[in-house]
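Is this the right way to post structure tokens for a design question? Let me know if I should format differently. Anyway, here goes:
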């Protein structure tokens, strides 16, 4: 492919590098740039050996600990994403403290002697909620709202980016290498080639960066080789680099795709995401990637082209999706949230341990360390001691409070009145659960009735009639309806009314998306909720954001204890529903444990030893320790059965565990604080060689089994065998295979230009618009990046969303409204 030399390059050189050219003036100090297909730091060749670590996935008291471990593995650079949604939770309100203290992270990196590859997004993907975009993008009260087209030239979107980057870059400017800091270069967009090829959009992002950050800093783009020509700009405005995993590509073809985009002499080979492991969704077996291929290909890359190639391990240390930050993928109809652990099967484990404790396989850390030490000839510092991880024993969590009882405490002042239900984001809610309540005349349920939510709930709905569990609907199941039984209706309400409650739990927002159509909003997604075909109007809505449950649920003074015990009594009194106990209903469970100061074990950084909260026997929910949200647990699916509890969260003396169990409590109402992770839950059993049926049944029981039938009505231990059987029906295996297949196709198709051309002629796609065809929009013009977008069903971009009121695109909701700016803070 002939290579175009950007005329700007010449200008840039003439102007001493001050114009839009990508390279800084080489030789001047300090500088970072490119010459003769080599990266030069202050005029000297440098091979970047980088590792991705996300400060937002590591407890801030452990940042130094993790950096020290990474340094000892031999990296010289850290790749840093910045999640917009963590830093700007509400429009114009910024957070820069605790786990969001980006400047402290940069200071620590600099102190460690490491350099930085900065990846400000604004879209970061990263298996992170909404791919890093703020949830308030989905609110019509914010300029643009759902009509805004992210990752495009839409001026509304670019206005938001401009405003955000002005703030972000004002903090980061002093960390540029040219200003004596560690940042070597800055990434523009993120695998944008999967989504589009609008060079003007990329140029606008470049302009914003040049305006707010630096006119000189080297800018780069990252894409898989097959879509690099779409996601970057040919020539010198952007240094095009590629990403791929071990064994995915022949490096010569990958780096040739890179060179085809860069100006001559300006293409040092660079793999900016070299995958050490992989992500895992709930319901899949834990990622367990081949160490052998990783080692082999790492060596190949290190030695590539006379050691002029650079790489970044994605991840060197993955960390944890604490709180509600885990994202999700959507594969056709299937919604696939990520597990809470972001261990990633990376060389440094979630807990900062070496090798892959809990996962197995060869020890990636020491082998990579040896490779790097031999290759660079550097003598590396000794790895810090392994982290201290201890069992703190069994903890009873027998104090309980049904969620329905806690609603007034979690959302005071009564529900928001609404004629029809709307998505969570329209109420300014960020995450958690949302309760939609309406009242029906008693006669509406004289006979069984069909409730239809009008669309899949996002993501998990529990329905109650007069406080009794009527059923559940899961986003990933095709049904949006269920039968309300007449016998559930007690007609106890005012004027014989029946109370209908729909409680919707949000899980992570989709993190891979293009344009508006793919993004994810939460709660009831249709305003057309019907009973026997008749639309239900007149709702009360309770956004339950759950930012501070320990206080809200349990610290209500004298009434608190009474409330808890009354609620607990009620739970036991309420008759069984469908043969199951009412403990199935969502409820908080609370317990305490003591850490004895005299005997407590401490980790290398001086904090109390880490531990794992083992949730065997529980079903699905959210867990907190001392008010710190550890993330989602879902042992009914697995594979993750334990949640990582960083030591700094613990304290000497009394500690508190709170669970919000949304399905079914473990029958002994206890948890175990264990010294090892368990990634071997039900989903992993689908693997060949998994445990026997009898063993599975035993594994489903709580680890610390209480006396059977102690409370009178238990007849089964924890999750029953039926569930284990259901898992075997391979629903989840199908999920896993679908995702694996999808990734295979994705990368096969992007592997080379010729293969891509072949797929472009895919007959099934040509003009048919067939939804089954994953590869096109019905245009016949297959593009790899459109795949997810297309399989969503809403394939064509929304043409007339804004200002006309005439848009038929469901994502615009026909409002055509360009609402004025309204801050959404709660
Ligand atoms: C690699 O480096 C050596 C020594 O600097 C040089 O002789 C050789 O030509 C280089 N090879 C390539 C392919 O650049
Ligand atoms: C991962 O693979 C290794 C073999 O490479 C095996 O020993 C280990 O048990 C596997 N772990 C899991 C969780 O599947
Ligand atoms: C629920 O919807 C499915 C198809 O979407 C339909 O076959 C079924 O009859 C409906 N059930 C009820 C109770 O309306
Ligand atoms: C609402 O849903 C009902 C039943 O599913 C359907 O018959 C009706 O057409 C829908 N109304 C609107 C406005 O979508
Ligand atoms: C695709 O459709 C166009 C127009 O209908 C047709 O001319 C062309 O031959 C088709 N291509 C293939 C590969 O079927």
């Amino acid at each position: 492919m002939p290579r175009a030399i950007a005329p700007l390059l010449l200008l840039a050189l003439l102007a001493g590098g001050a114009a839009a050219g990508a390279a800084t003036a080489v030789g001047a100090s300090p500088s970072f740039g490119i010459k003769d297909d080599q990266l030069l730091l202050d005029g000297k060749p440098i091979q970047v050996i980088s590792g991705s670590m996300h400060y937002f996935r590591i407890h801030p008291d452990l940042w130094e600990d993790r950096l020290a471990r990474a340094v000892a593995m031999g990296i010289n650079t850290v790749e840093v994403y910045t999640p917009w949604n963590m830093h700007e939770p509400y429009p114009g309100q910024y957070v820069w403290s605790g786990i969001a203290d980006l400047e402290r992270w940069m200071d620590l990196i600099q102190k460690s002697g490491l350099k930085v590859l900065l990846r400000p997004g604004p879209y970061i993907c990263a298996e992170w909620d909404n791919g890093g975009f703020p949830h308030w993008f989905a609110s019509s009260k914010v300029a643009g709202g759902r009509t805004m087209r992210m990752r495009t030239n839409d001026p509304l979107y670019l206005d938001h980016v401009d405003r955000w980057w002005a703030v972000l870059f004002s903090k980061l400017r002093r960390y540029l290498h040219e200003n004596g800091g560690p940042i070597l270069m800055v990434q523009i967009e993120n695998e944008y080639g999967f989504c589009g090829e609008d060079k003007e959009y990329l140029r606008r992002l470049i302009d914003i960066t040049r305006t707010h950050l630096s006119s000189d800093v080297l800018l780069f783009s990252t894409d898989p080789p097959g879509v690099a020509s779409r996601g970057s700009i040919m020539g010198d405005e952007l240094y095009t680099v590629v990403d791929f995993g071990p064994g995915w590509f022949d490096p010569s073809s990958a780096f040739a795709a890179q060179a085809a985009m860069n100006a001559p002499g300006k293409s040092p080979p660079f793999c900016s995401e070299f995958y050490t492991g992989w992500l895992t969704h709930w319901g899949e077996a834990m990622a367990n990637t081949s160490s052998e291929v990783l080692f082999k290909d790492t060596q190949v890359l290190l030695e590539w082209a006379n050691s002029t190639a650079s790489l970044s391990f994605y991840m060197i240390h993955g960390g944890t999706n604490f709180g509600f930050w885990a994202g999700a993928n959507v594969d056709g109809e299937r919604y696939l949230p990520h597990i809470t652990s972001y261990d990633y099967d990376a060389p440094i484990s979630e807990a900062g341990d070496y090798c892959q404790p809990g996962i197995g396989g060869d020890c990636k850390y020491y082998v990579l360390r040896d490779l790097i030490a031999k290759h660079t000839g550097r003598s590396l510092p000794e790895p810090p001691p392994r982290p201290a991880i201890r069992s703190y024993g069994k903890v009873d969590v027998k104090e309980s409070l049904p969620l329905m009882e806690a609603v007034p405490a979690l959302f005071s002042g009564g529900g928001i009145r609404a004629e029809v239900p709307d998505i969570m984001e329209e109420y300014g809610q960020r995450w958690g659960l949302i309760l939609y309540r309406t009242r029906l005349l008693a006669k509406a349920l004289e006979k069984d009735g069909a409730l239809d939510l009008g669309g899949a709930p996002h993501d998990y709905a529990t329905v109650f009639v007069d406080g009794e569990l009527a059923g559940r609907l899961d986003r990933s199941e095709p049904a949006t309806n269920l039968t309300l039984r007449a016998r559930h209706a007690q007609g106890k309400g005012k004027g014989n009314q029946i109370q209908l409650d729909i409680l919707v739990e949000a899980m992570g927002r989709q993190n891979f998306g293009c344009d508006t159509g793919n993004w994810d909003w939460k709660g009831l997604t249709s305003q057309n909720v019907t009973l026997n075909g008749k639309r239900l109007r007149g709702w009360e809505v309770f956004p339950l954001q759950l930012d501070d449950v320990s206080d809200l649920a349990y610290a209500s003074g004298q009434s608190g204890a009474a409330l808890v015990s009354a609620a607990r009594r009620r739970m036991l009194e309420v008759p069984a529903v469908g043969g199951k106990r009412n403990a199935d209903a969502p409820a908080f469970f609370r317990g305490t444990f003591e850490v004895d100061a005299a005997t407590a074990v401490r980790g290398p950084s001086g904090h109390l030893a880490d531990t794992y909260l083992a949730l065997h026997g529980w079903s699905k929910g959210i867990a907190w320790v001392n008010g710190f949200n550890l993330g989602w647990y879902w042992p009914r699916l697995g594979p993750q059965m334990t949640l990582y509890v960083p030591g700094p969260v613990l304290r000497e003396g009394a500690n508190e565990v709170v669970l919000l169990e949304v399905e079914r409590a473990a029958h002994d109402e206890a948890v175990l604080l264990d010294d090892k992770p368990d990634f071997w839950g039900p989903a992993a059993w689908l693997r060949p060689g998994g445990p026997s049926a009898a063993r599975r049944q035993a594994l489903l029981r709580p680890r610390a089994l209480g006396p059977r039938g102690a409370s009178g009505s238990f007849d089964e231990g924890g999750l029953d065998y039926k569930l284990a059987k259901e898992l075997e029906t391979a629903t989840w295996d199908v999920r896993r295979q679908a995702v694996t297949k999808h990734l295979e196709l994705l990368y096969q198709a992007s592997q080379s230009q010729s293969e891509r051309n072949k797929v472009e002629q895919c007959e099934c796609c040509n003009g048919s618009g067939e939804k089954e065809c994953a590869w096109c929009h019905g245009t016949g013009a297959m593009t790899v990046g459109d795949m997810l977008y297309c399989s969503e069903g809403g394939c064509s971009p929304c043409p007339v969303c804004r200002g006309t009121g005439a848009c038929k695109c469901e994502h615009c909701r026909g409002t055509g409204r360009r609402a004025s700016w309204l801050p959404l803070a709660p």
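Format looks fine. Someone answered above. Worth noting: Residues 761, 763, 766-767, 780 surround 2-acetamido-2-deoxy-beta-D-glucopyranose (ligand 5) (CB under 6 Å). The domain at 393-399+552-719 is CATH 2.60.120 (Jelly Rolls).
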